[in-house]
Amino acid sequence: xxxxxxxxxxxxxxxxxxxxxxxxxxxxxxxxxxxxxxxxxxxxxxxxxxxxxxxxxxxxxxxxxxxxxxxxxxxxxxxxxxxxxxxxxxxxxxxxxxxxxxxxxxxxxxxxxxxxxxxxxxxxxxxxxxxxxxxxxxxxxxxxxxxxxxxxxxxxxxxxxxxxxxxxxxxxxxxxxxxxxxxxxxxxxxxxxxxxxxxxxxxxxxxxxxxxxxxxxxxxxxxxxxxxxxxxxxxxxxxxxxxxxxxxxxxxxxxxxxxxxxxxxxxxxxxxxxxxxxxxxxxxxxxxxxxxxxxxxxxxxxxxxxxxxxxxxxxxxxxxxxxxxxxxxxxxxxxxxxxxxxxxxxxxxxxxxxxxxxxxxxxxxxxxxxx
Length: 371
Description:
The protein is α/β, with parallel strands linked by helices. It is 27% helix and 14% strand. The strands form two sheets. It has a seven-stranded mixed beta sheet with strand order 3-4-2-1-5-6-7, sandwiched between helices. A three-stranded antiparallel beta sheet has the order 8-10-9. A hairpin with a 4-residue loop joins strand 3 (79-81) and strand 4.
C-alpha cells in the first residue's frame, strides 16, 4: 500500500476540487520537476488532465522547467514542451520576468514551486517578478502552496539590508524566514504595493512546527544541488560558502553538507570549535574531490556536517562560527557582518544585534501567515 501523506499540497487540493475554479480560464503554469501531486504526477500533467485545452504556456525558474541546468549561472533558453506542445518560457534568462506578450496568452498564472525556506533561494524572487508583471497587466496569480521544509516557527539570521536587495535577496527577510510561498506572495503583494489579483490555495494538514519528514511527502529535488531534505536543513548556513573560495560541495553527491578546500587546516578549525558554537550538529573530517565547480579535480580537505538534533541546530549561526576566520566575501546581505568578521569581532555580539529585529520580524509577519 502506498503511504498517504499527512499534508496535502495546494496542487493536491486543486485535484480534490477538480480544478473547478479555473473553468474557462486560459492558464499559465510556473513550475518545475518538483511540482508534483501526492501520486507523483507532474503539475502540468494534473492540470492538463483536469482542464483539457486550458493550459496555454509553461514557465520555468532557475535551472529550467525540468531542473536540467546544473550551473547556477547558466541561463535557460525558451523551449517547447514535447508532450503538450506548449511554449516553455524561461524566467531565468536575459529577462527574469514574463513579458507582456507572454501574459497576453493567459488569464491566470498558476505558481507551483517548492521553496527551501532560505532567503537566497531564487524561486521566491521569480514569483515576485511574476507578481510585479501580473500587476501591470491585471493578470490573476494563483499560488499552489507547499511546505517550508524547515518549518514555519523558527527564523534565523540578520534581516537583509535594503542596499543589498537583489535576485538572491528580494526583501528584508532573515536568511531562514519560516514562510511558505503562499505567505511570501501575500507579503510581497502588500510591501511592494502590487495590484495583482492574488489567490493562495493553502495546504491541508500542515503545521508551522513541521519539518519535511513530518509531512509524509516525497522529496523531489527542487534544484540539482538540493538532493535531500538534509540539504535544505543545512542550506541557510552552508550557502554562505558560495561567497568564498571554499567549495560548498557542488560536484559531490552531498552538496552543502560537504564543504572544504585544498588549503583548509581541518585539525586547527576543529580545535577551536566546541558544541556550543555548533549546536545540534557534528562536523566530521572529510576529504573529497569535486567533479565540477570550485576546485574541480582537486583534493579538498574539509568536513561533512551531520545534523543530530534539528530542533537545536542553527544552520546560520553554526556556519558563521566555522568560517569566522577565513571568510573574505559573503552574501549575507549586511556589510557590518563582513567587516566584523574580518576584524575578528565577536559573533555573540553580532547575533545579539540581530535578535531584536528578528523578534520584530516575527511580530510583523503575523498578518501574512496562513497556518
